Amino acid sequence: MELSITKLGSEQTEESPEKDEEGSESTMDPAIWGRLHGELVDRILLCLPIVNLYPLRCVSKSWDTTIKSTSFNRMYLEMESRGPPWFFMCSSFNCRDNTSAYDPVQNRWHNFPLTFLPAHMRFPLTAVKGLLLVRGGITNAGMLAICNPITRAWRELPPMIHKRLNSLVGVYEDKRTDSYKIVVAGGTCQGGEYECTTEVYDSLTNSWQVTGNVCKEFTVRITWWTSKTVFSDGALYCLTSGRPYSIIAYDLKTATWNEVAVPPPEFLSCSFLIQRRNRLFLVGGIGPERTCEHIYFWELKQVKGEKKQWVEVEKMPHEYFQVFFKDKASSDLKCAGHGDLVYFYKDSHTQVLLCDFSKTRTEWRWLPKCPLSMSFLKFSTRGLFLDPTLDVSS
Hints:
This protein is mainly beta. The protein has 7 helices and 24 strands. The strands form 6 sheets. A 4-stranded antiparallel sheet has the order 3-2-1-24, with no helix packed on it. Strands 4-5-6-7 form a 4-stranded antiparallel sheet, with no helix packed on it. The longest helix has 9 residues, at 38-46. Residues 1-29 are annotated as: Disordered.
C-alpha cells in the first residue's frame, strides 16, 4: 500500500508542489519511505491519537506487528503527552450498545460500541489498566469478563470460587508488577442467603483466592452492585448504597474489613467517593429531609491534635448547581473522579460538568454534548475512567 503525503498549502513551504505530467501532485516515493529507520517510523506512529493509530495495523504486516507489540505499547504508555485518562459513559445495564468516551486532550467524544462482547456480557462494573470489567446478565451473573475497547480484545475470567449475585466489586492496579487485582465481596448465593466471603482475582496467576470472611453486618450493607468503591493508600473503600450511608474499607495487606471510624456528613444525598493523588474525598449533596441544597467536596484529613475528620475543600458554584437541581428533591446526580478531574452527570442525560483541580483556581466548565444525551431512550448511566492502551493481552 502506497503512503502519499500531500502538501497542505503554499504558505507552508518555500517551493510549490511538484506536478506530474497530468498536473496532479506527486506522491512520496515508496522506496524512500521504505528506507526510513524502524525507530523513526515508531516515533511517527507514537505521535498519532490512539483512535487513529490502531486501525493503521491494516497498512502492512510490519505495522501490524509493531503496533501490537509489547515494546510499542510500553513506549506509548510512557509518553508524557498522553494526558489524563478518558471518561467512559455507558448504560448501567447495557454497555454493549450505549458507550461513549470523552478525550480531555482533544476535548471531544468518541463512540465506542462494545458489540464485540457476547450479548450476555453487558453490565459495566469498573475499569483498570485500560481495561473494562463487565459482568453477565441475570442468567450469567456469576460470569466476569475483561475487555479493551480500543483493540476490541476480550476474554472471560475464570469462574469465582463462590458464585454470587449483587456483590461488591473493586479493583486495584499494581504498577510495580504491571498487574491488577479484583476484589469481590458479599452478595447473595442462588438460595438467597448472604455470601459472607471475600475473593481476590490476581491477573498474574489468572486465578481467584478466598482471602477471608466478611461479617454479616457488612455483607448486608455492601450487597448491592451499586455500592461505590475506590482504592486509596493501600485500602479499597466502599460507600454503601443504602441509608444511612457508611464507609467500609478492605485492607489489601491484612485482607480484613473495617468500618471507617469517621462518619460521613449528615443528611447526605447523591454521594460518591473519589481518590485524588492518593487522598480520599467524599462528594455529596446536603439538605434537610432528603432534599439537596448544595454539593460539597470533603477530604478525609488528619487535623492537627485531633482525629481524622471530613474537611470541606470545595463547593459547586450555584449557577451549575441550579442546572442539575431545578427540583431540589432530584436524586439522580452522579459523580466520577480521577486525579484532578471530577465529572458530574445525570441519568436524565443532561450535560456533563467538569471540575478541574489542576488549575491554580478550581475551574468549572461544561463538556461538549455527549452522544448518549442525543438518544431518545433514557437509561441509567455509569461513568468510568480508562487509560487507553494498545495491550491486546487483557
